[in-house]
Specification:
172 residues; 2 helices; globular; EC 5.2.1.8; Cyclophilin-type_PPIase; eight-stranded antiparallel barrel; Peptidyl-prolyl cis-trans isomerase; rotamase
């Protein structure tokens, strides 16, 4: 493995900026997938559509009117990479299907050890961590306090949209 620096992205949101270091060594597929979405400008105008205090904030796939953006193909789940779902870590959201992650991600507000990889079974596979908030955790903490409600079939949706204005690579 070369001594390359991990990529860093700046996520500009309607509530402030968050800087995230991506772990290319331990989650190469996930990081490349995320950067492909970043480079395509996919996240611009999406929202954090699910916020649960003392758990996580989830975004990266819905428009403010709760329509899902069209994704690329799902990726392999790298939850067995040894990176834990701890406070400030960035992980891929997915369905009950192990290898179903596309563009949606979440930032852990607390240590969510139950989301870690336990076994190679559908129930135990876990959620792939691929980055860590290195600046702006206070912005994430402010998100956890927004008022949420139901929108259609969706629960825990912020009443006032928390928008991702732009995500871009940062030269460190």
């Amino acid at each position: 493995m070369s001594e390359e620096k991990n990529p860093v992205v700046l996520m500009e949101t309607s509530m402030g900026n968050i800087k995230i270091e991506l772990n290319q060594e331990k989650a190469p597929i996930t990081v490349q997938n995320f950067l492909d979405y970043v480079d395509a400008g996919f996240y611009e105008g999406t929202i954090f559509h699910r916020i649960i205090d003392n758990f996580m904030v989830q975004g990266g796939g819905m428009t403010p009117d709760m329509k899902e953006k069209k994704n690329r193909a799902p990726i392999k789940n790298e939850a067995d990479n040894g990176l834990p779902n701890t406070r400030g870590s960035l992980a891929m959201a997915r369905t009950q299907v192990v290898d179903s992650a596309t563009s949606q991600f979440f930032i852990n507000l607390v240590d969510n050890t139950f989301l870690n990889h336990q076994s190679k079974t559908p129930a135990g596979y876990g959620y792939a961590v691929f980055g860590q908030v290195i600046e702006g955790m206070e912005v994430v903490d402010a998100m956890r306090k927004v008022k949420t409600g139901n929108k259609g079939f969706h629960q825990d949706v912020p009443v006032e949209a928390v928008t991702i204005e732009k995500v871009s690579r940062v030269a460190e």
